[in-house]
Design brief:
heterodimer, A: 490 residues, three-stranded mixed sheet, B: 518 residues, mainly alpha, two-stranded antiparallel sheet
Chain lengths: 490, 518
């Protein structure tokens, strides 16, 4: 694979770090401050998009930053998977930025400067993960994300918020230090390198027992992917302001988790080694378990954001499930799901925030008849739900389709049953909300007058809802990138 | 006469002489004694750098005191190991002396200021002597100089507890010194030499001798006491807690490190590696003790409410890392051990200096008193956060570098079970540091109610600017005289975490020398 040397990946990181400084110094002028956020978001997306043509030509972009220790480099390598993730995250950052402005201003949130600063750091670190060329770089940015999202989760500063944030940190930092770092030590010791390679670096580098131990440590250590039993940080993180839940806990943070899992599966172990060790089945089992159990828990959540959080836990495991099949379509579906789930889930979180801003309602049971008051918001919610369930003509259908085909290719018919069960469960926890919103009567005393959230919030959620539709109709870019990922590793 | 040739002795003599000059100039003006201290420590640092440079370009330096040829005369021998430690110690001594002036204003009686600087220089001279000397009896002399000065430095604190802590340390320190002296005596008895290089040559044929074994036992116990290796750490928590912050900083960052240096010197250059590995199972014993130290230090640190005591117990755990790396006795782990001498010095130095600023501004040492200080003392607390994250071992800080080397070193030694212990200790460190960091930034200061913004969506209007966070104190940070030295150390915690190859190359050379030969 041809490698182009360029500093462009670095610029994608630096642009939001520069914005952090600018946001900090213009804290007293909110409009200027928000301008920096938007400018950085647009610029970042532009920079990421500018790398796309080179990647589509089948090349990779490399950028060496510094050699920290012998064998440990901070180094970037943009490939199809990385650019796919970076494109999704940076595009959605633009939309979330507008939405955030509407949200924090409508609610008069305190410490807005701190909020926007740490948001920008989080996005910068997300790019770092997306573009990392080795496990060390990944780990560095993975940890930076954990720390810099802590102030966002704890934003409200209440004892309850701090409790949630502490659980967030304990799970993410605890697992990453106790298991992931351990796995990295073992990997380095066995393979002598941490560089990602297309066919993995661990094949033939140790006994089966060691390799299986490393794999299990990795899966336990990447708690950001939300696999059970290390998932409960995600519902706890729902104390965060909704835009944080939307972009970070439906896109950037959790997708960092699944992205790292994919990297470990594809570029550290390699498809062949996993198949030979039979670890794909193990992963498939854990992922299936998470998909079903998280969906069942989601059924019982009355808090809307908590329901969405458990839905996210469940949906994230689709990515793992697709990858665990170790087949062409399975991995394609897995990669696609990173982007497609992002659009659907961010829409749902956006609507939850819009409902809260407009009506201060947080519970599912309070949403009767709300479709009459907030038709646009609830229409977007419906679109997002249908995409989650996986109905055409919405994006969510595509990834489920590919994962289903992958299961057939792998001859794993029980996986089809898992997908079917999950689809029904998804319908069971989303459709009642849609039904209640549009077909039930409003509680007595509430008028049916229109009371949407401010336009700066409604427009972003409409855009992402339309996005799920567009991605179904014109999936060629995502599909092309996903195919390139598969072509590289199979 | 070429001055550069005499640097090995000047690096000790100049600080030693300044201990006499300081009280004299202090009679003219108290401030002069500070100027002299800062100047001399800076000079020592420059001389140390020059020595390091010579070692890098020309190899080991052997300096004959008074021109007497070793093994009859005293030799000062400087190789990668002691040049590396020398630079660290003299640098931290310089930074701490910069910081000392404002800090001791609050923590030491005015009448004792000049004496303080004089003893400080004696202490530094003693440490430098331990590092530079190539003569084992000379080593004892410098250990005593540094120790006696150390007892006095601790006792200079205002509280009566300081006297008790100092007395305790005096008793244990004297036992340690006596043990070391006995060890030296036994070695002299059977070999007739005090020169380290000469001992290295003569000892192997006597390795089975009971006298040599006894000597080695005395050395091990005595030095373990000096460097506060668990379970011989009892003197340390009180000493660090009740000493003035400056003294805690310099002792935590240098004194125990020099103890560790002395242990490496005796274990790996006076005796040879095969002695440690095969004749007596000292490395196994030290591995177990250091692992216990790592766990126990962290566990006990979690339970502390006084921040200096917490840092002291944390130091006991960190000393465990240094000894662990040495005891694993392979290239990687030894490099990690030496790196940790630097890295822990930087981190703990920063933390004690931060505590000094807090004591200066607020007069408190409880952990609870730091709550909500992120707004009041943003720079001080930023330094604390950097050093705290580094202690946790977050990548791109020095703490990660040490842990990386120790963990991969443990794997090279085939002892994978050590890694969970190191990682568990990291997590416990995260518990006691993050608890404080969270309080600093997210809790309301003691005595001030939780601010009104706390309610979700509370319609509290946000006034523009930084004052909107009602309930927080206005900014009132420490003076630059305290902040600048603190930030230099905190900055290095990050700098050497990213540009780690600089100390790594040095520590690697020193490790090769320790494991291979002189």
């Amino acid at each position: 694979m041809e490698a182009v040397q360029s500093s462009i990946p670095l610029y994608a990181l630096v642009v939001s770090l520069a914005a952090v400084v600018l946001i900090g110094v213009s804290g007293k002028k909110p409009n200027l401050r928000e301008f920096w956020t938007i400018a950085a978001a647009v610029l970042k997306f532009g920079i990421v998009a500018s790398m796309l043509p080179v990647i589509l030509e089948g090349k990779v972009i490399e950028c060496f930053l510094i050699n920290v220790l012998p064998g440990l480099d901070i180094k970037f390598k943009v490939d199809a998977l990385g650019i796919f993730f970076a494109l999704t995250a940076s595009f959605l950052w633009i939309i979330t930025s507008f939405y955030s402005i509407g949200y924090v201003r409508s609610l008069n949130e305190h410490a807005q400067t701190r909020y926007f600063m740490f948001f920008a750091v989080a996005l910068s670190a997300t790019m770092g993960v997306a573009f990392s060329a080795n496990l060390f770089t990944t780990f560095v940015f993975y940890e930076i994300i954990t720390f810099c999202t802590f102030p966002l989760v704890a934003h409200k500063g209440t004892p309850e918020a701090l409790k949630g944030a502490r659980r967030y940190l304990v799970y993410l930092l605890g697992t990453s230090v106790a298991f992931q770092l351990f796995a990295i030590f073992l990997t380095y010791n066995a393979a002598g390198t941490l560089e990602f390679a297309n066919d993995g670096i661990l094949a033939g580098q140790g006994s089966d027992v060691l390799l299986i131990a490393i794999f299990i440590l990795f899966m336990a250590g990447i708690a950001k992917a939300g696999m059970m039993p290390f998932h409960s940080w995600l519902p706890a993180a729902m104390v965060a302001p909704t835009p944080v839940s939307a972009l970070l806990h439906a896109v950037a943070v959790v997708k960092t988790g699944v992205f790292v899992v994919l990297k470990v599966v594809l570029n550290i172990f390699g498809v062949n080694l996993l198949a030979q060790l039979g670890l794909g089945t193990v992963l498939a089992f854990i992922a299936s378990f998470t998909i079903i159990v998280a969906s069942i828990i989601a059924l019982r959540q009355d808090n809307l954001k908590a329901r969405l959080a458990y839905s996210t836990v469940s949906q994230l495991s689709y990515v793992m499930l697709g990858a665990s099949l170790l087949t062409l379509s399975g991995i394609t579906g897995s990669v696609m799901h990173i982007g497609l789930h992002a659009f659907g889930k961010i829409t749902l979180f956006f609507t939850a925030g819009a409902i809260y801003v407009a009506t201060h309602k947080t519970k599912v049971s309070e949403l009767d008849g709300i479709g009459k008051q907030m038709p646009f918001t609830m229409a977007a919610f419906t679109v997002g739900s249908l995409s989650m369930i996986g109905l055409p003509p919405l994006g969510g259908f595509l990834s489920k389709w590919y994962i289903g085909i992958g299961a057939i290719e792998a001859g794993q018919l029980p996986i089809i049953a898992v997908i079917a069960a999950s689809t029904m469960l998804n319908a069971a926890y989303f459709l009642p909300i849609v039904y209640a919103a549009f077909f039930k009567e409003l509680p007595p005393g509430e008028k049916t007058e229109r009371r949407e959230a401010p336009a700066i919030m409604v427009v972003p959620l409409t855009v992402t809802a339309i996005g799920t539709l567009v991605l179904f109709l014109w999936p060629s870019l995502f599909l092309e990138l996903a195919r390139m990922v598969v072509a590289g590793v199979m | 006469m070429n001055i550069a040739e005499h640097l090995p002795i000047l690096v000790i003599v100049i600080p030693l002489m300044s201990a006499i000059v300081i009280p004299l100039v202090g009679r003219i003006n108290k401030l002069f004694s500070w100027y002299v201290t800062v100047f001399i420590t800076l000079l020592s640092f420059v001389m140390s750098l020059s020595l390091l440079n010579t070692v890098i370009s020309a190899g080991r330096i052997s300096y004959w005191l008074g021109g007497w040829e070793p093994p009859w005369g005293i030799e000062y021998a400087i190789d990668y190991l002691n040049a590396f430690v020398l630079v660290i110690v003299s640098f931290i001594a310089f930074i701490v002396s910069l910081y000392a002036r404002r800090s001791i204003e609050k923590e030491i009686d005015k009448s004792k200021v000049t004496t303080f600087y004089s003893i400080y220089m004696l202490f530094i001279a003693g440490l430098m002597g331990i590092i530079v000397t190539g003569d084992i009896f000379n080593l004892y002399v410098f250990i005593e100089i540094a120790s006696l000065a150390g007892y006095a430095l601790i006792a200079v604190g205002k509280r009566r507890d300081a006297l008790m802590a100092s007395y305790n340390y005096l008793i244990l320190g004297t036992i340690a010194a006596t043990f070391i002296l006995l060890g030296i005596g036994y070695l002299y008895m059977v070999t007739g030499t005090l020169n380290m290089a000469d001992l290295r040559e003569k000892l192997p044929m006597l390795y089975e001798s009971k006298v040599v074994l006894t000597a080695f036992a005395f050395f091990t116990v005595g030095l373990s006491l000096k460097l506060a290796l668990f379970p011989l750490h009892a003197w340390l928590p009180n000493a660090y807690t009740y000493a003035p912050s400056v003294v805690s900083a310099i002792m935590a960052a240098t004194a125990t490190k020099v103890g560790a240096y002395a242990m490496l010197r005796i274990m790996f250059t006076v005796f040879k590696l095969e002695f440690d590995l095969h004749i007596v199972p000292v490395t196994q014993i030290l591995i177990i003790l250091s692992l216990v130290a790592i766990v126990a230090g962290s566990v006990i640190a979690i339970a502390q409410t006084n921040i200096k005591r917490m840092l002291a117990y944390s130091s006991i755990g960190q000393i465990g890392y240094i000894v662990l790396g040495a005891a694993l006795a392979n290239q990687t782990s030894m490099t990690g051990s030496l790196l940790h001498i630097l890295n822990h010095g930087l981190m703990k130095g920063t933390l004690f200096l931060v505590v000094g600023v807090v004591v200066y501004k607020l007069g408190i040492e409880d952990i609870a008193g730091l709550k909500g200080m992120g707004k009041k003392m943003p720079f001080t607390m930023a330094a604390f956060t950097i050093a705290g994250l580094s202690m946790i071992g977050v990548p791109l800080t020095v703490g990660f570098v040490s842990k990386w080397y120790l963990a991969t070193g443990a794997l090279s030694a085939g002892m994978w079970f050590i890694i969970p212990i190191i990682l568990a200790s990291s997590l416990m460190t995260a518990v006691y540091f993050w608890r404080i960091i969270e309080g600093i930034y997210f809790a309301a200061p003691a005595g001030i109610h939780q601010p009104a913004f706390a309610g979700y969506g509370n319609p509290e209007p946000e006034s523009q600017g930084s004052k909107q966070v009602d309930g927080f104190l206005p900014r009132d940070d420490g003076p630059p005289g305290l902040l600048i030295p603190t930030f230099i150390l905190a900055g290095l915690c990050i700098f050497f975490g990213i540009a780690a190859f600089i100390p790594v190359s040095m520590a690697g050379q020193a490790a090769t020398m320790l494991l291979g030969g002189m």
